[in-house]
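Regression test attached.
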Amino acid sequence: MRYPAGIDELTKTLIAGGIGFAVGAVIIRLYGYDPLAAYRALFNGAFGDLYSISESLANATPLILTALTFAIGFRGGMFNIGAEGQLYVGALAAVAVSYFHLPGAIGLALSMMIAVLAGALWSLPAALLKASRGVHEVISTIMLNWISQFLCFYLITEILVDPQRAEKTVSIIESNRLPLLVPGTSLSYGIFIAVFTAIIVYLVLWRTVIGFDVRATGYNPLAAAYAGIEEWKIIVFVFITGGLTAGLAGAVHVMGRPPVYAIYGGMPSIKGLGFEGLAVAMIGRNHPIGIIFAAVFFGGLLAGGRMMQMLASVPLELVRVVEGMVVLFLAIPELVKLFSWLRKLAPSLNFRAKRP
Amino acid sequence: MNPKGTPSQNNSEKLLEGKGLCKGFPGVWQHLILDHIDIDIQAGEIHTLLGENGAGKTVIANCLSGFYSLSEGQIYVRGRPVSLKSPADGIRHGIGMVHQELALVKPFTVAQNIALGLPGSDFSFPLPEVEAKVRELSETYRLSVDPLAKVEDLSAGEQQRAEIIKVLYHNPQILILDEPTSLISADAARLFEALENMARRGYGILFITHKIEEALEVGDRVTVLRLGKSTGTRPTAQTDKNELVKLMFGEHTPVHLERQAVKSDTIVLDVRNLKALAADREPALQGVSFSIRQGEILGFAGISGNGQSELAEVVTGMRKATGGQVFIGGKDFTNQTPRKIINAGVAHIPEKRRAMGVVEPMTTAENVVLKDLRVPPFSKGTFINKSYITGHTKEIVTRFGALVSDLWKTPARILSGGNIQRLILGRETWRIPQCLVAVYPAQGLDAKAIDHTWQLLMRLRESGTAVLLVSEDLDELMALSDRIAVMSKGRIVGLFAASEATRDKLGLMIATGGK
Amino acid sequence: MNFEYAGGILLGSLHAMVPITLTASGEVVGESAGLFNIGLEGIILISAMTGALGAEAGGPMAGLLVGLGTGFVIGLIFAAVCTYFKGVQLIAGVGINLFAAGLVAFWLIHLGVPGHHALAAEHQLANIATPFGDLSPMIFVAIALPVLIYLLLFRTKLGLKIRAVGENPQAADVAGIRIHLLRLLATAAGASLAGLAGAYLSIDWLGSVTKEISAGRGFIALATVVFSGLNPLLVLLGGFIFGFFDNLAVWVATMPAVQKIIPWQFIAMAPYAVTLLVVAGVIGRAKFPAAMGIPYQRE
């Protein structure tokens, strides 16, 4: 029986999700807590009231954008894991623009534009190396992430440092901040920017010629070449757009996160957003709409984690445990097939390489 | 029963026998790749397996050596039924196979490659013994190769000798060689001498080839395969070229479709002294020159692997030419990008329809406009014009008779090969291209679809398209072509007008490589 | 800079070298067989935790063994997913990292002090005293291992098999080698060294477990592997260089005078920049096994 592609993807996510939560429950049990109470608190804390929902959406905002970075790359057949490095420079670029004390709308817009540009520029070396010398982008982006991290450490403590409080950068000036959507929460208008960007990416990938070319290249580079698609153009496009969204993630985060609107030394608030974005992208099946849902779900888990910790005494880090498991299983391409096959064969699992 | 390693002294003992061998592959359900084949190899004989490509020669060899499993049938080694589940099983039963695509790890030395397959402790370092034995085997069988050389540094002939020694190292009694002379020509005589030497010592040798001459020169018996069936086994002394050609290609007289003579003198595609390398860096095209006029079909005959694929790839921009030129419509398009060549009016029906001709995970409509997408009215600026594409695809699907469930939802992967080909044909020909490169256009299609394709090509010819047709099907070539070129080892070894080409003549030229 | 400084820096570098060299040596084996394990970071992290607990239960040696075993098990799971289940190596590795980060943080909280768990001195590995400071016996292990692995990969038949599987699995298959099984064991064995590295961090060098204890060393190890071109002897060199810069950066950070001339961040950055240049082909040539990263299928 054939199902349309969408159902297959959703099933896969559900299976992986199921396994992830099951493993989480086992771990919770092993440590002597109550899984049901924990999960109940988790979901309540995520979506139970306006405050929770706001926090969830606030968490989701940068995740949508960094997930898009990975997803665009994935659609083009590449593994762009440079979101970390790109978002760091994006965030700092936004902080830097703040120095110029530009009025309201101009400052806001310019901050975002420069941040986006910074992210794109940071992705360029990986793109060029791949296009010209075939350097594998996983290695080059990992290196660039590290170089960016240390560069930003330097910028934070030496150049953009707040003269009054040396452990952080200058705060973004009031006029350049993204206004809060729900007062008293962390949720800013950034969420609209993120969702809007996701929709744009969707339109580009499925409604434009370049998007078509990207997807075709990702599915079958040989057929794409046959059809006249030029690979180097696709590589550069994919990396630059990925860099744009990652830079935007950094900017939106620092410009929209009360109370400080700044980056601390060591970048604790933005570190890891790139890799989490990868997880969100996988859970969202690398589709912009799926990513929005996955990011909200995931942001919810992070927000709800606090409630889970308070009410059920289960440390919120469990959320990451679940996340990791889910991603691990989503790595298996034929997960759905495997699952139904395993259920048939439960006792005797045969793992020999199949001979033709 | 003789212990392994001692060739039999009884010269008509059947060392290896297969009865009723069948093999089908999942996904290819039209016909069995191997269809109830009986074959045997006796001690002291060189038994040639002769046939065109696609006849099933490599498949049966892989089954006999354990690399593939059988769907049906039974293999006997020295009269005892065996079940071969892996190449290791094959080796254990004394069957050694030298593959056509050499199974050597390129950065390793010859000795290291051999050491890889040796039994014994993993923590041993047997290289010195291996090197010594390699030199010894080299001597005995006159297959000189340097055990310390890295495979990637060796010539094709040396690599092959290394592969043979690697197999001989395990003291097989049965040796299977898959198209061993496809890579080496000058050294063939040395190889044959070595093989005859081994046969005299009691080995049983199965020698796979598509060259009639070799079969007659080197074999004691020859079995001919055609489309997965054995068409007969003969002692070499009792047969000749003509009989073998008939067994390989069949007997009926093909039809040559009626047509008007080629009207125009304008040359559309002009190829001069084209040279190119194959994927493994060996020369694939060694100076090919020809031209095709408007409204003319030039058919390329020959066993695949003689440069036809590479020719089509160079002409369409998918492969670099290392020498020579390609002129399209009078302009030099040598080594231009596929995009430019497509824009110059060259359509391409590719050899690998699933791997290159379509993007399988994409839908029917997306595949139909794969190339045209960038052009208005299929897109307006950067935006795809879905409604126009839908209309166009509907038309193509109807006109070319492709059976698809929907246009925008189901991936092309689930379509049958025939339907995919219909989509490709529609996509490539609806514009009446200036030039069409069609590589095995009707492979795997049913009779109706083949007929449909032939009619299409004739109509294009009428409309002035210059067609470069590559095919292994002599019927097809003779039906469609105005002229036929026979390719062997990267060169055109014969060029006939259709009127001069007969089945026997072509078959012979193909099977002998023009000698 | 006087003699004591130099000695101190040297010692510090050697200690910093240990986890990197161990992990990278193991990864060389795995990558030679064709699997790229980005999950090393997570493995180090979890093993630091399990190793510490093992040490508390049965002494430092037990702890190291537990760490080794943890690495082996996780490596086995990762490799199984990527060989028999044809999983995408990169994604599976990231999954492991996320899982590990969560698990260790979770565990630490459960054990009492969130984010930190110190080992009492008796659970730590005894060090050899020298005039410049303590020298851990693990340093010698870290120097010996790459040499042993070099011998394994280039002087035994097993090494040939491993490298064949990464370079040309079809040829290895024809030679009768069980591709998936060998990749599984090679990766698991390699990962066990990452586990040992993790245990070293908690039991020996740092003496405690924190949620950031791996501090990117898994990724540094990956960079070292790239830098070394899969030659274990170069891993030793690379590990030392990374360890040296790591240590130097920390030192510079505490010396404002030097910081003004060369900020520590740029020293820390140097090894990654160099690796990038190596990969780009500007310095040397990075050559990977031809079949690395591709799940093997016979047909």
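Expected vs. actual: identical. Confidence is low (pLDDT under 50) at residues 346-356 of chain A.
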